């Protein structure tokens, strides 16, 4: 979007976590990093320099976190960046922040944002880090209940050639979910009216079923489909996200996170973990509303990120051991572990 540029080639670039025997934050220089990470840092510096050259920028860098300091220092001493800074006409402040300093933001569910939900719940487009697969079967005469139907190519979110879809994506990113869904309906109604499709405009709350019924109008009209294909892909992504079971879990996460923040304020870490313990259920004991193993990993990252300094002691050791055991049992009982769980184990 106009305000956000992602660098998917560097999606795996994460600061090394301080572990036993690893370099402490103070002593990290480029030379102290593992080879792979060193190469990734150099690649990032090269790409940023190319970007700043295209924008004609003379940057002043600031860094928050150990790896960010390394990147800022590399950029400052990069030969082609020095030459660029001598001739560039535009000034900019660049702030680097270590991703591990904001894990609570990355795993939290506080954003009322449709773009975030679409990117979180729909399956990734193969080979892409920042785009998703949109099931297009609804626009065809093919009737199948098979979720993995691969006869029809998936749609996606990137629609650079469709002005209406680009405008709608901006509202998905910048508006609250309720307003963004209303924008989706407005764009659909306008498109249908332009194509003289028999659309009945209705007021009030927008439902996924209502959006689906509007999409159906385009189905047998090839010209209309072709003219508004980008827009239809984004609206289908909205419908599929709103109907997705993970979206209803989103509110459960949010409620639990708020409860955790209150509990952490009033009591110690062991009691928070003990609250979590009965919720960790094995595959056979879970209903569709219960948390799965990955959900607990996300919650644990959230808890440990927001709690600050943790007082060590016997009580904490016992509570952590119980949670570990319950999680290990739940992971071992999974009949088909997800790719993430397979990677972890």
TrEMBL record:
GO biological process, alphabetically ordered:
vesicle-mediated transport
Q: Does the keyword Signal apply?
A: yes
Q: Which domain of life is it from?
A: Eukaryota
**What UniProt keywords apply to this chain's record, in alphabetical order?**
Signal
* Keyword flag Signal: yes
Q: Which residues form the signal peptide?
A: 1-21
What's the protein name?
SCFD2 protein
Lineage per the UniProt record: Eukaryota, Metazoa, Chordata, Craniata, Vertebrata
Name the encoding gene, please. Answer: Scfd2_0
């Amino acid at each position: 979007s106009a305000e956000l540029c992602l660098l998917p080639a560097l999606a795996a670039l994460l600061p090394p976590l301080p572990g036993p025997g690893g370099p402490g934050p103070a002593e990290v220089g480029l030379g102290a990093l593992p080879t792979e990470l060193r190469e990734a840092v150099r690649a990032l510096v090269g790409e940023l320099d190319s970007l700043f050259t295209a924008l004609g920028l003379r940057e002043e860098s600031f860094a928050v976190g150990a790896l960010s300091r390394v990147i800022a220092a590399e950029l400052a001493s990069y030969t082609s960046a020095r030459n660029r800074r001598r001739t560039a006409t535009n000034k900019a402040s660049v702030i680097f922040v270590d991703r591990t300093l904001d894990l609570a933001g990355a795993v939290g569910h506080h954003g009322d944002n449709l773009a975030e939900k679409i990117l979180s719940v729909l399956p990734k487009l193969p080979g892409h880090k920042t785009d998703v697969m949109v099931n297009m079967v609804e626009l065809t005469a093919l009737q199948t209940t098979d979720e993995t139907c691969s006869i029809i190519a998936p749609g996606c979110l990137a629609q650079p050639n469709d002005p209406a879809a680009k405008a709608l994506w901006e509202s998905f990113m910048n508006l609250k979910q309720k307003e963004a869904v209303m924008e989706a309906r407005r764009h659909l109604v306008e498109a249908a009216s332009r194509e003289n499709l028999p659309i009945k405009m209705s007021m009030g709350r927008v439902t996924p079923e209502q959006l689906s019924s509007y999409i159906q109008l385009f189905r047998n009209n090839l010209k209309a489909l072709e003219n508004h294909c980008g827009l239809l892909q984004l609206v289908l992504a909205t419908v599929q996200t709103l109907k997705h079971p993970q979206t209803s879990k989103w509110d459960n996460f949010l409620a639990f996170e708020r409860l955790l923040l209150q509990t952490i304020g009033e009591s110690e870490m062991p009691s928070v973990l003990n609250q979590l313990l009965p919720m960790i259920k094995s595959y056979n004991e879970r209903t569709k509303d219960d948390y799965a193993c990955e959900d607990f990993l996300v919650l644990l990252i959230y808890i440990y990120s927001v709690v600050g300094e943790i007082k060590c002691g016997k009580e904490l050791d016992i509570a952590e051991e119980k949670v570990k055991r319950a999680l290990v049992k739940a992971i071992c009982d999974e009949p088909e572990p997800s790719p993430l769980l397979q990677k972890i184990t």
